[in-house]
Design brief:
The complex is a heterodimer.
Chain A: H1 2-10, H2 15-28, E1 30-32, E2 36-38, E3 46-51, E4 58-63, E5 68-72, E6 78-80, E7 84-87, E8 89-93, E9 105-110, E10 117-122, E11 126-131, E12 136-142, E13 147-152, E14 161-166, E15 171-175, E16 180-185, E17 192-197, E18 204-209, E19 214-218, E20 224-227, H3 243-248, H4 252-268, H5 271-280, H6 287-300, H7 314-317, E21 326-331, E22 337-342, E23 347-351, E24 356-357, E25 376-377, E26 383-388, E27 391-396, E28 402-407, E29 413-419, E30 424-429, E31 434-439, H8 442-451
Parallel strand pairs in A: 2-7
Antiparallel strand pairs in A: 1-31, 3-4, 4-5, 5-8, 6-7, 9-10, 10-11, 11-12, 13-14, 14-15, 15-16, 17-18, 18-19, 19-20, 21-22, 22-23, 23-24, 25-26, 26-27, 27-28, 29-30, 30-31
Chain B: H1 2-22, H2 31-43, H3 45-59, H4 64-78, H5 82-90, H6 92-99, H7 112-133, H8 138-150, H9 158-218, H10 236-250, H11 259-289, H12 296-321, H13 329-339, H14 356-359, H15 372-378, H16 382-392, H17 396-403, E1 422-423, E2 443-444, H18 446-452, E3 486-487, E4 491-492, H19 505-516, H20 518-529, H21 537-586, H22 590-605, H23 614-618, H24 624-633, H25 635-656
Antiparallel strand pairs in B: 1-2, 3-4
Helix pairs in contact in B: 1-2, 1-3, 2-3, 3-4, 3-5, 4-7, 7-8, 9-11, 9-12, 11-12, 11-13, 16-17, 19-20
The chains are: A alpha+beta, B mainly alpha.
Chain lengths: ~475, ~650
């Protein structure tokens, strides 16, 4: 580590790669934190966890007992015996609340722009938008069925849409600005358990249904434009970006977003599609790079020629990504890949660009089949955290090898959430606990060593009497 | 390379030790093995890792006993080694599910009694671990919280209970201390008044005594000359009594003159003893127990009180000399007990062991009083008394003591020994008022006295220790039934060794032959059985003959019975054969079921006492219920039952609809 610091000082190491290195190092040393506890006020399973996107300070949790709570994960509310930081909830909204949900909250997310609002979806068919400061309901949407998941795009600048999947076959987009449903996306043949906005384009929504299909929607036009098919696969990954382009570009995310979208367009050589995507790129300065990039993509892409229309061919329309329901979806931070988990206990890595199964073999796992799962991916998309029954497993995204197994929960784990800022993992489970997994910190260990003399309690030392 | 193989050997050693320690049926780990494990594990951290792996492997075994012992070893190591803790804690949920069995799909393995024991022990241990190390291990806290708050397991709550008890005790002590202090303050105020009161009572008594002693001097009776006249009282005890009575005579007698004084004396003495003495005792105990910073007053007061108490005692003694006791002797006794009330000590149990030795003797030398019944009672103890003889050879006295008869106490003991006439009217009876002549010289002849003194006792049966049957049982162990002669399950009671095999094979064989040749065998048998009998030969003959007769009759009966039984068995066998054939004809596989009970019965008949093993703990015990179920639920019976039901229905139908038949 000190060598990296020195390299950084000397300028051998770019600031971004230095940060990445430190981050991955910290993520690799995640372990159950003994010094940070979240005191869960919930009396039911924790279904959803999210750290806010602006400050990375407030954790929002939704529970099966119809309550949602917010915790400050940076500042502890009190300390037990001077060492264990207890984070109590800042506030709880539950059934006692005038406008609280009547049944289990299945999803609770922050408004991506600030922490003034949060959105909860519940099995009582309602989606509610809450004002964080007054803890009052600002708006609610009545859905046709139990709400499984809601999602808001974290990169959206032009819309304020909540995508909601429910037991109903239609996915609805709720507009906070107007308080009405703007879209009704139909295509799935069963309820929709998982939703994910693309991390590269603010108009692209991915939905995974109980019918095993994963559909891509462009909200600016009718119908879904892609259905992932588990039998369509590509071996290996796309070639990495050319060294020159990645270095030149300061806004990596922007580049990746465009490349992925463009790539998909070019790969399928669809006229309609390409028109659409070109239309949606408003900034002319990226055009050059795109062109250059498209060329390289065309070289590697196999000649997958197929007719593409808003109404897809019926055979393609029936393709499935998983046997059984798709329980979880997560796009990697760069927007190039999509991870999906299914009730067939599989984790699949999809190339968003080509829509192919990358055939990464994730090692044996058993997943909860009946509940929507919340996966987590590290910022550099090298690791994915998957709730596997009562444990959480970390897999290497590229190789599919099990990197770590986190044991600590006593019942099925439903959700995990990685705080990108301080590389802490939060997991919620049916045993009503929210566990904090934090990187091993040498400072805390030192404090513990020092503190030993001061406590009356039994010091944690060897004690051989004979 | 060498180091690696060494480590390999070491890990194997730990695994082997754990294997050995968990392969036992005992309720706890062999302490020697445990010590060995500890010392091995202590040597290096590799060993600890190996121990954790091996213990977890053993925890997975489908046997509660193995898991229980493994949990005990885990506890030992957990409390000692930090590394062990940190390694074990990672898999704590698995460990807990294996030791407590909280997952419904992973219940604890049989045997169930040990499984429940395992569960309670593990819960207790988890609580202990959480109390001592919970702060360092989040996993421990999590597991504890989960079991306590989510699954609502009942934890024994040792720590809390202990602190609560401690607190209660402290409160009680504080309270009693406060009470003592209050009392002490009270005493401080009243000390002089108490003293004065007691002093006045004592003064009163003193005055009374003074008056009485003055009177005593006036008439001092002199009875010493009479001593010679009563020479006939030779018995020592009687002489003692006489002396006492003479002394008694010297005392001042209460009569009409000094009755008032005596009354006053008695009253004030009573006051002194019942009220003042007890209060003084109480104050003393308060003073002794009270805890003060300033001890000056306390010491003074204590000294004074002790003086007062001694004074009271001396006064009481003087009054006692004068013959003035309180009416209620229990009061007195209580007061005396009070003296050492607060010198705490254990009350020794009175052991009536000494009585056994004299009890065993048989007295017929000088004891005319002991009845012939007494002899019978004493007979079973003959061997005991012989032991007593061996002991007594050392000293004459102990020999005599052993021989001496033990008689219950009674008034006849008063003139034990002397074979003399007794004066009828020398009993201190007031005969003046009798009408008619009084013959002072009337004598009760010695024979009459002896007759009057004839000693009768109620016959008490000696508790006889019946030997247990001690025949080996199927389930292991020996039959503990105590019967006089014949155990209803195992036949006549014979001497057996520790395994339960009859010791004297000969006598048993004899008995077998005896059945065929009764007359020849009885001699031998009666000799062996009644070897210790002291009855004379003639009596023996009679008895033998009688026994013989009874036996013959019984034999005949038994023959008849066995014949009848054989006949019945034959019939039953025939019936079964017929039924089985019928069953075979109806279903092919029911045959196997019919065969089954017979074989199981044969197995059960074999008596085996095996050393308990882990596998034997798992075996289900065959209870009476099981046997019955096997009997009743096998296919033949159910078939026949259903057939009967069918027939019943048939006949009913026929009756109900006769025209359709």
């Amino acid at each position: 580590m000190w060598k990296a610091v020195k390299d950084r000082e000397a300028g051998f190491l770019l600031p971004s790669s230095f940060a990445t290195r430190i981050r991955s190092h910290r993520v690799a040393s995640l372990d159950l934190s003994n010094h940070k506890e979240i005191v869960s006020p919930h009396n039911g399973a924790i279904n959803s966890l999210q750290v806010d996107l602006t400050e990375a300070r407030y954790l929002l949790s939704g529970s099966s007992d119809g309550s949602a709570a917010v915790y400050d994960i940076q500042h502890a509310t009190d300390y037990e015996r001077g060492l264990i930081a207890k984070h109590k909830s800042l506030f709880v909204v539950d059934k006692q609340h005038n406008h609280g949900h009547r049944y289990a909250i299945s999803t609770a997310i922050w408004y991506p722009v600030d922490t003034g609002l949060f959105i909860t979806g519940s099995f009582d068919h309602y989606i509610k938008v809450w004002d964080t400061n007054t803890t009052q309901v600002v708006m609610d949407f009545k859905m046709p069925g139990k709400v499984y998941r809601t999602a808001m795009s974290s990169i959206a600048t032009t819309h304020m849409l909540i995508a909601a999947g429910s037991t109903d076959v239609q996915v609805r987009l709720c507009d906070i600005a107007s308080g009405a449903f703007t879209h009704t996306l139909s295509g799935h043949r069963d309820g929709v358990m998982s939703l994910e906005w693309s991390t590269s384009s603010e108009w692209i929504l991915v939905t995974g249904g109980c019918d095993g299909a994963i559909r891509f929607w462009d909200i600016r036009r009718a119908g879904c434009f892609r259905v992932l098919d588990q039998s369509r696969s590509q071996l290996g990954r796309r070639p990495p970006l050319a060294e020159s382009t990645s270095k030149k570009d300061t806004t990596i995310i922007g580049l990746l977003c465009t490349t992925s979208c463009e790539g998909s367009v070019t790969g399928q050589s669809s006229s309609v599609k390409s028109m659409v995507s070109q239309r949606r790129i408003p900034l002319g300065n990226e055009m050059k790079q795109l062109r250059a990039h498209r060329k390289s993509q065309n070289l590697t892409r196999g000649p997958v020629v197929q007719r593409l229309h808003p109404g897809l061919s019926s055979s393609h329309n029936r393709a499935t990504a998983h046997y059984g329901a798709v329980t979880g979806l997560r796009a990697t931070g760069d927007g190039m890949y999509l991870l999906s988990s299914g009730s067939d206990s599989r984790l699949r890595l999809w190339d968003v660009d080509s829509g192919c199964n990358t055939l990464v073999n994730f090692e044996a796992m058993r997943l909860q089949p009946t509940k929507a799962l919340q996966l987590a991916v590290t910022q550099d998309s090298s690791l994915v955290f998957v709730p596997c029954l009562a444990t959480v497993k970390a897999y290497d995204v590229r190789s599919g090898m099990t990197f770590r197994t986190f044991r600590g929960h006593y019942e099925l784990v439903n959700c995990c959430c990685l705080s990108s800022q301080d590389q802490e993992l939060y997991t919620g489970s049916n045993d009503r606990q929210i566990l904090v997994w934090s990187p091993a910190s040498p400072v805390i260990a030192e404090v513990e060593e020092d503190g030993k003399g001061g406590w009356d309690s039994v010091a944690d030392q060897d004690n051989w009497s004979d | 390379m060498g180091r690696e193989s060494e480590a390999e050997a070491g890990t194997r050693a730990v695994a082997r030790l754990i294997e050995k320690a968990t392969n036992s049926t005992a309720g706890e780990v062999d302490p020697r093995l445990l010590k060995a494990i500890k010392s091995t594990v202590r040597s290096s951290s590799d060993e600890i890792h190996a121990a954790v792996d091996s213990l977890m492997d053993h925890m997975k075994k489908q046997h509660a006993q193995v898991r229980f012992l493994a949990v005990l070893i885990v506890d030992e190591l957990f409390m000692r080694s930090k590394l062990f803790r940190s390694v074990l804690v990672v898999n704590l949920d698995q460990f807990l599910s294996l030791s407590i069995g909280f997952r419904r799909d992973l219940p604890l393995p049989p045997p169930s009694s040990i499984a429940s024991h395992l569960r309670s022990k593990s819960i207790e241990l988890l609580e202990k671990w959480n109390a001592s190390f919970g702060i360092h291990y989040r996993q421990l806290r999590l597991g504890f919280n989960y079991l306590k708050n989510t699954l609502r397991y009942q934890f024994p709550n040792r720590l809390e209970n202990a602190t609560r008890l401690q607190q209660e005790r402290q409160e009680r002590e504080m309270r009693s201390k406060q009470i003592l202090l209050d009392k002490f303050e009270n005493l401080k105020d009243k000390f002089s008044s108490i003293q004065a009161e007691i002093q006045s009572t004592i003064d009163e008594i003193e005055e009374c005594l003074e008056i009485l002693s003055v009177k005593q001097e006036e008439f001092t009776p002199n009875l010493s000359t009479e001593d010679d006249e009563v020479e006939e009282f030779k018995s020592l005890t009687l002489q003692q009594i006489r002396l006492d009575s003479l002394k008694e005579g010297e005392k001042v007698k209460e009569d009409s003159d000094n009755k008032v004084i005596f009354d006053a004396l008695r009253e004030s003495l009573k006051l002194l003893i019942s009220k003042h003495l007890s209060s003084v005792q109480e104050w003393i105990s308060v003073l002794v127990r009270v805890d003060l910073t300033d001890n000056k007053f306390r010491d003074n007061a204590l000294k004074e009180f002790i003086d007062i108490r001694n004074l009271i005692h001396s006064v009481r003694a003087r009054c006692g000399q004068l013959g003035c006791f309180l009416d209620n002797p229990s009061d007195l006794k209580k007061d005396e007990d009070d003296d050492d009330l607060w010198e705490e000590g254990k009350i020794e149990h009175y052991m009536p062991a000494t009585s056994s030795v004299p009890n065993s003797s048989v007295g017929n030398s000088a004891d005319t009083a002991t009845s012939s019944k007494g002899k019978d009672v004493a007979l079973p103890d003959a061997n005991k008394s012989s032991i007593g003889h061996v002991l007594s050879s050392t000293s004459e006295r102990s020999r005599l003591l052993v021989e001496a008869p033990v008689v219950t106490w009674g008034p006849f003991l008063d003139n034990w020994g002397p074979n003399q006439d007794v004066l009828a009217n020398h009993r201190g009876l007031e005969l003046q008022a009798h009408w008619g002549r009084v013959d002072y010289d009337a004598v009760i002849p010695a024979e009459k006295i002896a007759e009057l003194n004839f000693h009768r006792t109620v016959y008490k049966e000696e508790p006889v220790e019946l030997p247990p049957c001690r025949a080996p049982l199927k389930k292991g162990g020996l039959c503990q039934r105590r019967d006089l002669r014949v155990c209803p399950f195992h036949g006549p009671i014979v001497a057996r060794d520790d395994e339960g095999n009859p010791i004297d094979q000969n006598s048993q064989g004899d008995r077998e032959t005896e059945k065929e040749y009764p007359t020849a065998a009885t001699d031998l048998r009666s000799d062996s059985v009644d070897a210790h009998g002291t009855l004379n030969l003639g009596k023996e003959m009679v008895e033998k003959l009688g026994r013989q007769a009874v036996k013959n009759v019984r034999e005949r009966e038994r023959d008849m019975k066995s014949m009848k039984r054989a006949k019945l068995a034959k019939i039953r066998e025939h019936n079964e054969d017929v039924l089985r054939e019928a069953a075979i004809a109806s279903t092919s596989y029911s045959e196997a079921f019919a065969e089954h009970p017979a074989t199981s019965v044969r197995n059960g008949a074999e008596v085996k006492v095996k050393k308990p093993t882990l596998a034997s703990m798992l075996k289900k015990k065959i209870t009476a219920k099981d046997r019955l179920a096997q009997r009743l639920l096998n296919s033949r019976v159910t078939d026949s039952a259903s057939r009967q039901l069918m027939q019943g229905e048939d006949s009913k139908y026929r009756e109900a609809f006769p025209n359709q038949w």
